[in-house]
Amino acid sequence: MRRNFLKLMLGGASLLAIAGCGGGPAKSKFKTYNGPPVTRVELYKSQRMMRLFSGTTVLKQYDFGLGFAPVGNKLYEGDGKTPEGLYYVDRRNPNSRYYLSVGINYPNEQDKARALAAGVQVGSDIFIHGQGPEGRVATKRDWTAGCIAVTDDEIEDIYAMVKDGTPVMIYP
After folding, report:
1. Whole-model pTM over 0.85
2. The dihedral of CA 160, 163, 167, 172: what is its sign?
3. Largest separation between any pair of C-alpha atoms in the chain
4. Of the candidates 142, 52, 171, which has an alpha carbon nearest to the alpha carbon of residue 102?
5. Alpha-carbon separation of residue 115 from 65, 70, 83, 123, 128 (angstroms)
6. Half-sphere exposure of 121 (CA within 13 A, CB side)
7. What residue spans of 91-131 are helical by DSSP H?
8. Which residues neighbour 107 within 8 Å (Cβ) at sequence distance 6 or greater?
9. What long-range pairs does 86-91 form, CB within 8 A, spacing at least 24?
10. Which end of the chain has a smaller Cβ tally under 10 Å, C or N?
11. Is residue 39 packed enough to be buried (19+ CB in 10 Å), middle (13-18) or exposed (0-12)?
């Protein structure tokens, strides 16, 4: 009986040692940020450049992809365009299909009025997000339905740094 007990103990210790060879705990996609507050985000669609500011200081800068029809302001649902103008971060999705995502308050009142005047259905759900399954296999830079796409590593930074209520200015 004692011999079986020792075999069991040694076998269990071996399994624990093997299980511990995985390199430690999995990396969390949720970073912490203790730097200066991000006071605004500026996106320049034609340059595919996003800048995170604290006052007048650029904290971070990222390249990005846009909707599949990147030129022009978003007018209606499904047009593949990314909106232009002043928006605010109003939500975040930690379980996004696109890894992590930070939402902006599109459509705002001006967007709704413009779509109504044109007799079209206004778009919805514009996010700054990671790659997701489509982004990982995309052959074109601009592949989203109108969102702003960065890498998964970059959205980890953005998600940690940019708080709800932060202004987001999107330029042509």
Report:
1. no
2. positive
3. 85
4. 52
5. 24, 18, 12, 9, 22
6. 5
7. 109-118
8. 83, 115, 122, 123, 124
9. 86/167, 86/168, 86/169, 86/170, 87/126, 87/167, 87/168, 87/169, 87/170, 88/165, 88/166, 88/167, 88/168, 89/41, 89/162, 89/163, 89/164, 89/165, 89/166, 89/168, 90/164, 90/165, 91/164
10. N
11. middle
Instruction: Tell me the per-residue pLDDT of 77-132, one tens digit each, with 9 for 90 and over.
Output: 999 999 999 999 999 999 999 999 999 999 999 999 999 999 999 999 999 999 98
* Structural tokens at position 36: 């200066």
Spatial distance between the Cα atoms of 4 and 171, rounded to a whole number of angstroms: 73
Paired tokens of 43: 């996106």
Structure tokens at 127: 């996010």
Find out whether the peptide bond into 36 is cis, omega within 30 degrees of 0: no
Dihedral sign of CA atoms 65, 86, 115, 106 in order: positive
Rounded Cα gap, residues 110 and 62, in angstroms: 28
How far, in Å, CA of 73 to CA of 170, rounded? 10
Token readout for 137 is 């296999």
In total, the chain counts a number of residues equal to 172
* Structural contact between residues 91 and 68, judged by C-beta atoms closer than 8 angstroms: no
The answer to whether residues 132 and 97 touch, using CB atoms and an 8 Å cutoff, is yes
CATH topology of domain 2-171: L,D-transpeptidase catalytic domain-like (2.40.440)
